[in-house]
Every structure is written in C-alpha cells, then in structure tokens.
C-alpha cells in the first residue's frame, strides 16, 4: 500500500515538474506524430521528445533529468492516446448503432473497448509499479517506472490508432 501511495505521489508530482519539458520539446513529438500519419510509422516517434529533452536540457542525462524528460514524453503520448481512444470509440459506437438494427446482441463493440481500456489502465499501473519495485531503493526505479509508462502508453496509442483506422 505504501509503495503505491509513493508511486502515485511521485507520478503526480513529476507531472507538474514536466510542464517545462512538454512546452519546450512537445513540438518534436507533435511533428513526428503528424508526419507519421502519412506512412503509419508512429512507432519510430517513441523516444523523440525524451531524447531531445535529455540532450538539450542542463542535467538532462541525470537521473532526475531523464525521469522528467521521459515523463514529459509519456504525457504527450497520453494526449494522443485520449484522442485515438475517443475517435475509435466514436467509430465503434457508429458500428454498434448500425449493427443494432438487425443484430442488437452483437452491438457491443464500444462497451468492449471501454472495458478493455479500463483493464489496460489497471495493467499499465501494475506493470509500471513492478518496474519501479524491481530497483528496490535504487534511483533507477524512477527512470524504470517512467520508461515503462512511456513505452506502454505509446504502444497502446498506436494499437488504438490502428484499430480505429480499420473502423473508419
């Protein structure tokens, strides 16, 4: 219980500390994500913001710098995740409405996506809690947890984008 309280406190506190990094380097990921729309290479964008941030910020390659830069990128990916989720949900709701006319028992795509997303959030938090815990009291625990969040959020965003693209 104490570990999850600390992890929650750490992530909430770090989110406020990353405002500078998001403002200064968010455009790097925004540009990559927008250009990837043409060829679907969104996975190549993972790490662009955090790398630019670490390379250009004083102390960017320190434990704290790497953690904040990584969390800043996770925050931007989370923005994309919410957009992709909403667009995919809207497409699935439309499909469900069309299906419900003849087969109401099969009009459950949107509900199923909602349930899957809720389960994914629980899994993400547990998985990144494990990444944090594996380092014990070492300072790498913060980087490991931040990297886990970035990786999981970015990959889920891409999954939702691909699913949504199939529906539109």
End-to-end CA span: 43 Å
Number of domains: 1
Structural class: mainly alpha
CATH architecture: Up-down Bundle
Number of strands: 0
| CATH class call | Mainly Alpha
Helix percent reads over 70%
What is the helix/strand order?
A: HHHHHH
Q: Based on CA inertia axes, which overall geometry fits?
A: flat
User: Could you please say which CATH topology applies here?
Assistant: Substrate Binding Domain Of Dnak, Chain:A, Domain 2
Rounded mean pLDDT is: 89
User: Uncertain regions: pLDDT < 50 for 5+ in a row?
Assistant: none
Major sheet attributes = none
- Tally of helical segments: 6
What does this protein look like?
This protein has 168 residues and is mainly α. The chain contains 6 helices and no strands. Helix 1 crosses helix 4. It starts with a helix and ends with a helix.
Sum up the structure in keywords:
mainly alpha; 82% helix; Substrate Binding Domain Of Dnak, Chain:A, Domain 2; flat
Give the structure's gist in a few sentences.
This protein has 168 residues and is mostly helical.
Topology (SSEs and partners):
Blueprint: H1 2-17, H2 19-39, H3 48-56, H4 63-100, H5 109-133, H6 140-167
